[in-house]
Design goal:
387 residues; mainly alpha; MetI-like fold; four-stranded antiparallel sheet; 12 helices; 66% helix; MetI-like_sf; amino-acid transport; AA_ABC_transptr_permease_3TM; transmembrane
């Protein structure tokens, strides 16, 4: 026994077991005390409430919802709404941040000034204030009767209306997957053929893959088209409101715009720092090979800058996902608001907060794991680390 304790690995393992055991005992003790206190106040604990009907409805849901649905279904609705808002916000913030970040590194003095002004303004205004600003602006837009139509799109005080394909749910899901494939397939083809094909042939393969995926999108929409209906359902004024098309509520629009603009200001600085980290010698070497400025950007500067900015970008994405909880301030039914409504109606505070913590922990850890995998895949190895 004494000889085992002299082993450093054994001592480290025992200390870890002792620490984990003490932590588990503390958590179990707190749970038992909380359960006893709740029982003394006549409050039942447990997760049986998840199977009871809520008795209330939500104003925005990507899944079908009625007041008779159980709590667990509304938790799922909240998670889906949060993921949808987060995905849209991250995409828009990335686009805005990339454009502003490139402007910050531009050789044009006016572009640099505009980029710096954007970052200095929107990065220093709290996100909650920007959410309130955009929500107030959208809700003061013209009414549906006074709104102006542009290519089937109408921006009104009741939300954004746009055309939507007249297809079944399965066809829409398949078309969405095909769109994702049209984006991911060229990237995958470029990575698998970069060592075996010249640059020109690789670009042709990528364009061919994207065209094939987009052709699948059109084919799926044509086959899944509802009978005796036009391909696109346009919003039209009926009475005092608009019917048909797709309606994006003002709460979602305000949050997406606020997250895009606020998050874009931080992503712009990440993009600027990533491109500044690319060595001048590597760029000059690429130019000396006769590559055009666009080829130097896409084949040298962008890949190297992406490697530098990806770890910081992952942290920013995780933060922006958590920023979706701002939706409760303007009535958007995200995961956080669903949990708040559940606490108010059921009184199951500890269980609901535990579900909220577990949900966000799963989302953020999954996002971090994906970025860690990407970062590991594109990391320079061995003597490639030398500039």
């Amino acid at each position: 026994m004494v000889s085992l304790l002299r082993n450093q690995k054994v001592r480290n393992a025992l200390l870890q077991v002792l620490y984990v055991g003490s932590l588990a005992a503390l958590v179990l003790s707190c749970a038992m005390i909380a359960r006893r206190n709740l029982a003394e106040q006549g409050i039942t604990s447990g997760f049986d409430f998840l199977y009871k009907s809520t008795g209330w409805d939500v104003n925005f849901s990507l899944l079908p919802a009625t007041a008779n649905d159980p709590y667990w279904w509304f938790f799922l609705i909240g998670i889906v709404n949060t993921l949808f808002l987060g995905s849209v916000g991250l995409v828009l913030a990335t686009i805005v941040g990339t454009i502003v970040g490139l402007a910050r590194t531009s050789s044009n003095e006016l572009a640099r000034l505009l980029g710096r002004t954007y970052v200095d303004i929107f990065r220093n205004i709290p996100l909650i204030l920007q959410v309130f600003f955009w929500y107030a602006l959208i809700t003061h837009l013209p009414t549906p009767r006074a709104a102006h139509e542009a290519w089937g799109f109408l921006l009104t005080s009741r939300g954004l209306y746009m055309p939507i394909p007249n297809v079944g749910g399965l066809a829409m899901a398949l078309a969405t997957l095909a769109v994702i494939g049209a984006i991911a397939l060229p990237v995958w083809l470029g990575r698998t053929s970069r060592l075996s094909q010249p640059v020109g042939e690789r670009s042709a393969v990528q364009l061919g893959g994207a065209a094939a995926a987009l052709s699948c999108v059109v084919l799926i929409l044509m086959i899944g088209r509802l009978p005796d209906a036009p391909l696109l359902d346009f919003p039209a004024l009926q009475g005092l409101n608009l019917k048909g098309g797709l309606r994006i509520p003002p709460e979602f629009s305000a949050l997406a715009v606020a997250i895009a603009i606020y998050g874009g200001s931080y992503i712009a600085e990440i993009v600027r720092g990533g491109f500044k980290a690319v060595g001048k010698g590597q760029v000059e070497a690429a130019l000396s090979l006769g590559l055009s400025p666009w080829r130097v950007f896409t084949l040298v500067k962008l890949p190297l800058a992406l490697r530098a900015m990806l770890p910081i970008l992952a942290n920013q994405y995780v933060w922006l996902i958590k920023a979706t909880t701002m939706g409760i301030a303007i009535g958007f039914t995200d995961f956080f608001m669903i949990v708040s409504l559940t606490i108010n109606h059921s009184g199951q505070t500890l269980e609901s907060i535990g579900i909220l913590m577990a949900g966000f922990l799963t989302i953020n850890l999954s996002l971090a794991a994906v970025f860690n995998r990407i970062n590991k895949a594109i990391a320079l190895k061995g003597n490639q680390l030398r500039g």
